[in-house]
User: What shape does this take?
Amino acid sequence: MIDDSHLHAQPSSEKELFVAFTLLALQGFGGVLAVAQRVLCEQRRWLTREQFVDILAVAQVLPGPNVCNVALMVGDRFFGWRGAFAALAGMMAVPLVIVLILTALYAQYAVNTMVSGALRGMGAVSAGLIVGTGIKLVGALRSNPMQAPVCGALLGAAFAAVALLRWPLVWIILALGVVACAYAWLRLRSRFEMPSQS
Amino acid sequence: MSGSDLIALFGHFLLLSLLSIGGAITVAPDMHRVMVNQMGLLSDAQFNASIAIAQASPGPNVLFVAVMGYQAAGLAGAAATLLGIMLPSTTLALAAARWGHTRREWRAVQAFKAGMAPIVVGLLFATGWILSAQTPGWHHILLTIAAAIMVWRTRVHLLLLVAAGALCGAMGWV
Assistant: This one.
């Protein structure tokens, strides 16, 4: 694995953001998150893995499509609202045209078994891309102020509640989130109170 | 479809936008209730096809919302549903991100980020699990695991992995 925590680059303009997010979105079949992580952290190095998880946390908790929220926040961080708009427009404009064209064509090819088989295979791979991205982002938890066993337990609980028990996401985020943030608050005490004692 | 129907659809999607924690797909059951059962704009088959088409085409999955609008009322319908689902959540996300970023040194903001990080990663695994569990059969799961390992350990282009999946599927192996 390549350590990407110390390298930082920046987009030079809103146009570069727009183009980058367009290219990124066009590589994302069945979900853009895996591509976003790879392009933003590993290829363009605009974000560290830790920053990506930070942004993803806010994007997941708020309503709205996660990857669109990620695009907005990344764009906003570099160029304010113009950047946010450029990144979001890049994420959506060209894919929107493509999906509407595909919709118009769909009726003719829906019955073709090769086409439906290909879609199934792409679905299996896109599930794998998300899991692989999850494995990579586990590494970003190393710098977390909560200890590894606690992080592991929270991760496992979130997975089980959503994937196995199929509980509503809102309640899982609220319940687990409150516990986790309260615990993180306590763990951060030393970092925030030590300087005033010395 | 009449203008008042379009406005009603737009209004309903504005509301759903604020409820769509975890993505637009989480409020899909309510879209089904309104567009298929209540307003009769789409058939069941059209509704399911909308999600499948968006999954198979590049870009964010939220575009399934535009496909539904398009099938119901052409481009005007697509504009009504997509703008409706995006405007409130986008505004909120931008405001919240700025609020948090200017206060990033606050203990509460740092506690929020640290606390949510493992949960967010857990949700990624859950999403992968749910996507993979939609289709039965071990061939399918094998392909998912192989793709996960390739993403994790190698720098193979992601499009190449997707193309390999499409090929496996088209050949009838999964």
The two ends of chain A are 39 Å apart (CA to CA). The helical segments of chain A are 14-26, 33-43, 49-61, 66-109, 113-138, 148-164, 169-187, 189-197. The longest helix of chain A spans residues 66-109.
